[in-house]
Design goal:
The chain is an alpha+beta fold. Helices cover about 45% and strands about 15% of the residues. It has a 5-stranded antiparallel β-sheet. α5 runs parallel beside α10, α6 packs across α11 and α10 runs antiparallel to α11. The termini are far apart.
Length: about 400
């Protein structure tokens, strides 16, 4: 079966699975009830929206008290893996920042519909507004400062995460450069498989991985400099951050967390990203008016994407609380590099929309043209600068 035929088959199967998941989500399964307080009286209403799952609010009465929960239902092996991943990612984040992250209570498989799977969380009533830049950026910086990988200095995760329904297998690496290069290469190979060959991308693969990545990431961990693995949300766009209606404080959810360089999630303003970003913004704004529920990926790299309302103002506020990594002058281009990874994932996820591959090519081209000499050229410049002091 060729790639296009296989993809079409997968889409048909996913449509069937989504329909069954919707049917399963119309009643409260006994496995879900088992995770609620004993003797609970439960009512369920549809709540929220998702391209990859059915979502609902559970109103639960028990012992004279009432409590509300959020239930997400997915189907098949993919749905099982997605709900399990989100449960583990949200649990890890909440352990570090309990006031910022809703509690993930349980995940599992329905008894009455064995191929349907669920994620049960506490319900937080939200205002529908993106948190103010100063407040959210300070909270994210605090999350990054407080997180640690159990004393380990490894980057990555033992939990696969998902960009929409695109699986990302992280694994572990002892350096950020090795992690980023290894996983980004695997994702780009998948993008080419899904989208088909592209001569311009092929011509840039060698300089991108052998020159650009080494030039921008190796200085972080050489010459007496170092960075610490930080637990990041992993998908922090404006659709995954809201304001709690009761407390007025930020809430983040739908995590795809792993241990990374904290800047892997900060943005440059869109006008700096690409010379023709305005063209993309117009297309994206039109699409978002039709469907603002699309999933997005990657904190300070995602904060530089032109479609993200969490942008330049948030980045500026963030660095008031978490300084830029050294060398500071590379920070903007590091974020450009991280945004290329986001564009790779978006090109896989939205394979029928050519603008995502165009953004990927533009991002790669910008960096490849800027850094033809790679790390060696930068290192030689640093040596000459020191010897002439």
């Amino acid at each position: 079966m060729n790639i296009s035929a296989r993809t079409e088959y997968q889409e048909i199967e996913y449509a069937k699975e989504a329909k069954i998941a919707m049917e399963a989500a119309r009643t409260v399964d006994s496995e879900v009830i088992a995770r609620l307080p004993p003797g609970s009286r439960v009512s369920m209403v549809a709540h929220g929206a998702s391209l990859w799952a059915s979502t609902a609010r559970l109103d639960v009465g028990s012992g004279g008290t009432r409590k509300t929960y959020f239930l997400k239902t997915s189907f098949g092996a993919l749905g099982r893996d997605m709900t399990a991943s989100e449960f583990r990612c949200m649990t890890r984040l909440r352990a570090v920042a309990p006031d910022l992250v809703p509690e993930a209570i349980a995940c599992g498989t329905y008894a009455e519909t064995p191929d349907a799977h669920f994620l049960l969380c506490e319900f937080r009533r939200m205002t529908g507004e993106v948190p103010a830049a100063a407040v959210l950026a300070e909270k994210i910086a605090e999350l990054h400062r407080r997180s640690n990988n159990g004393g380990s200095n490894r980057f990555g995760s033992d939990v696969p995460t998902f960009h929409g329904n695109v699986r990302v297998d992280h694994g572990w690496s002892d350096s950020w450069e090795e992690y980023f290069s290894r996983t980004t290469r695997a994702l780009l190979e998948r993008e080419i498989e899904v989208q088909g060959p592209n001569g311009e991308i092929r011509s840039m693969i060698a300089p991108f991985f052998e020159k650009v990545i080494l030039r921008l990431l190796r200085p972080l961990e050489t010459g007496g400099r170092s960075i610490r693995p930080t637990l990041i949300h992993g998908d922090l766009w404006h659709g995954n951050a809201e304001t709690d209606a009761e407390t007025g404080q930020p809430i983040i959810f739908d995590a795809a967390s792993f241990y990374a360089h904290n800047e892997c999630k900060t943005l440059r303003p869109p006008e700096v990203v690409f010379g023709f970003a305005e063209q993309f913004l117009i297309r994206i704004e039109l699409r978002d008016k039709e469907a603002d529920t699309r999933a997005r990926v990657d904190e300070l790299g995602v904060w530089r994407q032109p479609w993200n309302k969490i942008g330049a103002a948030y980045r500026k506020e963030y660095h008031k609380h978490f300084p830029k990594s050294r060398p500071e002058e590379d920070c903007d281009d590091r974020q450009a590099l991280y945004a290329v990874r986001v564009n790779i994932l978006d090109s896989i996820l939205y394979k029928d929309d050519p603008s995502y591959r165009e953004m990927l090519i533009a991002g790669m081209r910008e960096l490849v043209d800027k850094y033809p000499g790679g790390f060696e050229e930068w290192e030689n410049y640093q040596w000459k600068a020191k010897t002439h002091v």
